Here is the input.
Amino acid sequence: MSQVTAPQDGAAVLDAEEIEQISRAAWYYYNDGLTQNQIADMLGVSRIKVSRLLEKGRQSGLIELRINSPHQGSMALQEELIAAFGLADARVVPAAPVGTAGAARIGRAAASLLMQHLVPNDLLAIGWGDATSTTLRYMAPVFPQSNISLVSLTGGVSAYIGTTGLYGPQGFAHLIPTPLRVSSPELAEMLRLEPYVRHVLDMALTAKLAMIGVGSVARSATLVRYGYCTATEIELFTRRGAVGDILGYFYDRDGQILDLEVHRHVVAVTPQDMRQIPSVVAAAAGPEKVEAILGLLRGRLANILVTDEPTARDLLRRI
Amino acid sequence: MSQVTAPQDGAAVLDAEEIEQISRAAWYYYNDGLTQNQIADMLGVSRIKVSRLLEKGRQSGLIELRINSPHQGSMALQEELIAAFGLADARVVPAAPVGTAGAARIGRAAASLLMQHLVPNDLLAIGWGDATSTTLRYMAPVFPQSNISLVSLTGGVSAYIGTTGLYGPQGFAHLIPTPLRVSSPELAEMLRLEPYVRHVLDMALTAKLAMIGVGSVARSATLVRYGYCTATEIELFTRRGAVGDILGYFYDRDGQILDLEVHRHVVAVTPQDMRQIPSVVAAAAGPEKVEAILGLLRGRLANILVTDEPTARDLLRRI
DNA sequence: ATTTGCATGGAACAAATGATCGGTAGCAGA
DNA sequence: TCTGCTACCGATCATTTGTTCCATGCAAAT
Here is the structure.
């Protein structure tokens, strides 16, 4: 089983003092319009340092840009998506510049959306995937102080949570301590019945908000890259009608979960159970995901969508 | 009666198309880190135009920079204020750089706070003063699309609402169409009983959120500058124990409303009635306001405070 | 004691940004 | 029609910003 390597740069861990310094610099810079030199004088550090502080603040998600327009997003597309698919909310980010990684952009938008919905002491359920991972990266600096807890919907999440290093001692995160997929149905069943696993699975269903990624059925799918599936298996599922997956479960173009052997190997909340969660945020973008998102929305497997502009247009074109 | 002149630059009025363009540019610039040149190419406009779009977005409050730390503000001072005065919330902005106008900074922070509390179709009650005025400036672009309505707590507000030009035809704003202070108690009483005035006064009390400024008793008080009081009167009130005013009513160091003749000339909701509003946000900063804020907080005339760092320290020093 | 790693500060440079200026197009009124 | 008047637009230029390379200092590890 291939290990999950830290995707890009490790999420910076910020201590309270640094957060204070960044906040201060950010205020002076963005709200007061001072130059970095002036700020450096006021803070008693070098101009370079101010530049680095601001950079770190932006990278870590501590400094967030919010655009205030209809429902705090923009683009008429959002309204169309909401109307067309009966969603509770949607967020559409502008088209990706050129060859930039989509997941990071979507993740940022999703983080912003989640933070607007979350209140202190909330519980956030999280699924599996690139988009989920990057979303957490941007939210990480906020959690500790807001008393927001995490709970995983699937196994295999611990890998990329661990890398943030934020959830060490206090344990704000309740993770299913298993892989996403195990080698036999019997083992999967045993794990699901394991008290702590069961406890986490139950807890996940009490969350008010869930955030999941959407997997496509491509040879380069994240599931394949991480070694949970082989390209051959994906091929097979496709012939059975699969257009995408959530939480490791594959579904067809109408969002119906397929009856596949592999599902019996998965340690995760089922999409059926997940309907108990009032708000399920799906984040995904890219031409290869269009079919998967369509199925997801047709099957009402999620009611909030975060995507980008071209993907939104594609979705609307195919009703 | 001196007219209210447009304080600084008139609030820019943005049409839907421009908002779209600004949103898009802002995303590419702040979230994707593209240069203005690249954005210009993508949008098909000149680089300088992008620069101006971004500038306009920041000025108008459409682009908001949010700093995520404890309860989306920063500074341990906030917690101390909340604890010391039994507040529902507080926001402390860093010390003002040098001789910059405090009201604008506080206004921006207040706008950010209000936008986080408001949901579409809410009603926001507003008082009188510089801070209130600048706060509205930053919120103006957001209102029309969010279906947020305004209602004034006092007379004399229409002057600076009118300047934004935003509330022309649709009438999202319900303003008391009188001056703050009139020349005789009889006239004030007649106006208060006037059906429409009465209607607005009643409506104001149904708001969930109110935003007020805090007046100091200085020769340079805003009330004096705008001609509603003479410096001599202020002098007199001070000798009677006044430390500040809200909505045109003066109170003493314990927040008790004084029994002054001038109060009978005021057309406004009374501080007593305002207690019906669950969240009252007071925004003020500066050494000359410290006594006024202290009285306000002691008398529980507001339960949310927006101020700056030196003021917060002063407040805490004097318990 | 030495080494190693890391955060910081400084200098210098290239890139990006914002401000100023003049030009042009619309537009109201004489 | 002409004359201001305003708003927008683009070019130029000074300032600001980010980056690179190197030196320094501190602290943990050897």
User: Anything to note?
Assistant: Chain A has a mean pLDDT of 85. Chain A is about 45% helix and 15% strand. The CA atoms of residues 145 and 236 of chain A lie 46 Å apart.
